[in-house]
Amino acid sequence: MKDYFKTFFKEMGAEVGDDYITELESHFEKKEYKKGDLFIDFEDTSKKLAFVYKGLARFYLNTFEGQEFNLTFKKENELFMSFYTIMTDKPSPFAIEFLEDSVIYVADYPKLRPMLDKDTYWTQVLRKLYAHNFILKAEREIQFLMYDAKTRYLNLKESNPELLARLPQYHLALYLGINPVSLNRIIKSLK
């Protein structure tokens, strides 16, 4: 697990030493989930965070009209949690569901927090983590505000072809903000 954490932090732009990794590891527990299992349900107040070792999860929400949207996906070597619940102390407005059988490492954020608060080193790592997630969120918003569905599809195909290959067309359409029929038309038009 140590190499896994080191790789994660390095890809995020933070070098984390062995002593820090060892201390971090002690807070995580390996868990397995089946396809369709929920990690966090709507209105959940859980403050768990997880690293994906193997598998794929989606963050999704339902509008007041009952329409479902995929907000993001998390796959191997990615961290996820309900930042919203952790930062606001409010119930989660979205759910996190596994789209594949998955193995993750889970920690309870409130139990992890004292370790993170006691050393300014972790403050710097957290700042990079928050910045990384802010950039991902901003890039997603830019996609929706500046590009049509076809361009969003092409951008995703270029930036993350592995994810595209793993997603059922239905979930891909929900992520792009269109219905599956429209996505099918886009794919056919590109052949």
Keywords:
single chain; 191 residues; alpha+beta; Jelly Rolls; 4-stranded antiparallel beta sheet; 23% strand
Question: How would you sum up this structure in a few lines?
Answer:
This protein is an alpha+beta fold and 191 residues long.
Can you describe this structure?
The chain folds into two domains: 144 residues, Jelly Rolls (Sandwich), CATH 2.60.120.10; 45 residues. β4 and β5 form a beta hairpin. It is globular. The mean pLDDT is 90. 50% of the residues lie in helices and 23% in strands. The protein is an alpha+beta fold and 191 residues long. The strands form two sheets. A four-stranded antiparallel β-sheet has the order 1-8-3-6. Strands 2-7-4-5 form a four-stranded antiparallel β-sheet. The protein has nine helices and eight strands.
Describe the protein's topology.
Elements: H1 2-11, H2 18-25, E1 29-33, E2 38-40, E3 48-54, E4 56-62, E5 68-75, E6 79-81, H3 83-88, E7 95-98, E8 102-108, H4 109-117, H5 120-146, H6 149-159, H7 161-166, H8 169-176, H9 180-189
Number of beta-strand segments: 8
Give the fraction of residues assigned to helices.
40-55%
Oligomerization state: single chain
Distance between the termini: 42 Å
Report the biggest beta sheet as strand number plus sense, adding barrel if it closes. 4 strands, antiparallel
Low-confidence parts, pLDDT < 50 over ≥5 residues? none
